[in-house]
Amino acid sequence: MSTVQEQIEKIEKEIRETPYHKGTEHYIGKLRAKLSKLGAKKLESATRGKGGGVGYAVKKQGDATVVLIGAPSVGKSTLLNKLTSAKSKIAPYEFTTVSVIPGMMEYKNAKIQILDVPGLIEGAEESRGRGREVMSVARGADLLLIMCDVDRVAMFESIVNSLEKVGIRTNQVAPRVNIEKKVKGGLIIRSNIKQELGKVTIKEVANELGIKNAEITIKEKLSLESLIDAFSTNRIYIPAIFVVNKVDLEKQSTVNSPRSRQAKSGTVWNLAKRGGQQLTVIYVSAKTRTGLSKLREEIWNKLKFVKVYLVRGEEKPSKNNPLIMKSGQTLGQVAEKIGNEFVEDKIGAKIWGPGSKYPGQEVSLSTPVVEGMQVRFI
What confidence tens digit (pLDDT) does each residue in 87-131 have? Predict the structure, then answer.
């Protein structure tokens, strides 16, 4: 019986040798779906081969968790130490970090947990080095800082490729596809948007990925890749910031030259063309603290934080009691964050400032939070 890797190689060869056109679209779609499924199986078997269990036990703390990910010796530990109060070991050789080192960055009243993990090497997604453990920590992040130094910006693309192979999509959103599974009845495909992919292809991919009976509603135009993503259970979508470190090693004349940096960081801009990614690239020197203020602000923005203010009892509205929430969250979630006992008897809230039509407006707990909103729960 052939191994998983042999099956993968056979399918890859068949895809290369099969001309793509409308007549073969459904067949290639089925092969691509099978390839995706085998890739996931290979990763699972690689983990079992190392004794089972994936990743490190990392307790999430604070308002959000950021994972610092990159090649060995790009300065991740130095950056962590400058952004937080952590004391990660620093040395000019590879694999200094052999476990997860946590630190806490405080910014605009937010407590942001930053995790420094071992450096990624080529083949990390297949368990080389500590790749699988690092990937498992990355899957739990609210934000990734993908880091290289000025001499290794080409690593950005390989890191993103490694993340994609384990189902992590950076700076993308999940395809707008609703899957309502049924007990019987086969597959029903609905879409008001003209699709380039035929219904036969969509059904073949769904079947291959374990969806046999369902009503599938597609709300956007899909590529074959996004279709497979929509039907796969291991996909996760995480925002990312690309950090180029050690700008202090550049010639002074090029440090602030966007044209020079764009030429040097060509692969970064190539990534922007793939998957419609909206890239944020920050240039820093962790050693000299250059660019760290901009990086902190961008971390705040990418996490989509908003600050609301709690008004207790009969006290006057003020900004004395800030609480960090995320854009899109509701007042009900604010109450839940305060505590389970607190939220039990709350039926609404009064709000002042941004988001209110008049001071002390009574609103429901489903009201979205707004930056600067002042809230007293009822």
Answer: 655 554 444 455 788 889 999 999 999 998 887 755 444 544 455
Q: Tell me, what amino acid is at 112?
A: I
Strands (E), 161-213: 168-170, 177-181, 187-191
* Cα–Cα dist 31/26, whole Å: 9
Domains and CATH numbers, the chain: 4-51+175-231 (no CATH), 64-121+128-169+236-302 (3.40.50.300), 305-377 (3.10.20.30)
> Rounded to the nearest 5°, which phi and psi values hold at 244?
-100, 115
Task: Please report, as a single letter, which amino acid is at residue 343.
Answer: V
d(CA 279, CA 156): 12
Cα distances from 1 to residues 7, 181, 278, in angstroms, run 10, 33, 44
Say how far apart CA 300 and CA 131 lie, in whole Å: 27
Question: 3-class DSSP state for residue 132?
Answer: helix
Handedness of CA 269, 240, 157, 233 (dihedral sign): negative
User: CA-CA distance, 82 to 288, in Å (whole number)?
Assistant: 9
Regarding pTM above 0.85, the answer is: no
CA–CA dist 61, 114 (Å, integer) = 10
- Residue 43 · residue 218 · CB < 8 Å: no
Q: What is the CA radius of gyration of the chain?
A: 24
Instruction: Report d(CA 60, CA 112) in Å as an integer.
Output: 10
User: Which residue from 273, 286, 283, 211 is spatially nearest to 243, judged by alpha carbons?
Assistant: 283
Phi and psi, residue 169, nearest 5°: -105, 120
